[in-house]
Amino acid sequence: MYQYRHPHPSVTADIVIFTLQDEQLKLLLIKRAVEPYKGQWALPGGFVRMDEDLDAAARRELAEETGISGVYLEQLYTFGAVDRDPRERVITVAYYALIPSDRIVLQAATDADEAGWFAMDALPALAFDHPAIVDMARQRLVAKLDYSTIAFQFMPETFTLTELQRVYEAIRQEVLDKRNFRKWVLALDQIEETGEMKRDTASRPAKLYRVRDRERVDIIK
Q1: Which of 17, 41, 110, 135 can pair with 29 through a Cys bridge, CB separation 3.0 to 4.6 Å?
Q2: Which of 171, 9, 10, 176 is CA-nearest to residue 96?
Q3: pLDDT tens for residues 146-186?
């Protein structure tokens, strides 16, 4: 078998996993059980196996850390600073995933002591170069709100327009005009009425909607 003369760096897949809970954008972190950075919080991820491609590695790590599959996952960026990992030369391909909060079965993988959700404005100190990865993922998510239907990936099976608006407001961190938002989102023709109502004693019954195609993220302009 031919062998390359040059040394090879290791490759990892790290995943920024977002969800919406209590009208807050939250991030899944794991507490590392092994060195380096033992006991410190970090993004879930791991080394890419020799027999799997990058996307497969990311989806495997996602399933191991959340217990679910079949959610939106997008490659974000490649981080390759020489000193980003004290063990050896490691290049990481970062991904981000969007998960509806009602689909999460949280579990820690074998290399983690625990896993938990953290609000974006209350993150602990993170291992490696993970702060930079998280910052880029959040910027990508906010930017895609304006030209895609990516926010719909956070929604449960059925939802009200008010609940959808709160998702946009939580990510953008700003209050949106109710009438303009509803006009805009309905004009996209990406959601449909279920014919059912959500009844809440604190307010009038509201129409329930669902996403027409949950498997897709469409570019809208």
Answers
A1: 41
A2: 171
A3: 899 999 999 999 999 999 999 999 999 999 999 999 999 99
Residue 110: inside a domain: yes
Which residues belong to the active site? 114
Give the integer Cα–Cα distance in Å for 79 and 23.
31
Residue 39: give its domain's CATH number: 3.90.79.10
Instruction: Judge if 20 and 125 occupy the same domain.
Output: yes
Q: Does residue 43 sit within a domain?
A: yes
CA distance 49 to 46: 9
Size of the chain, expressed as the number of residues it contains: 221
d(CA 113, CA 32): 6
131-157: pLDDT as tens digits: 999 999 999 999 999 899 999 999 999
| Number of domains observed in the structure of the chain | 2
Residue carrying the six token digits 């469409």: 218
Q: Indicate the pTM of the whole model.
A: 0.90
Do 16 and 30 touch, CB atoms closer than 8 A?
Answer: no
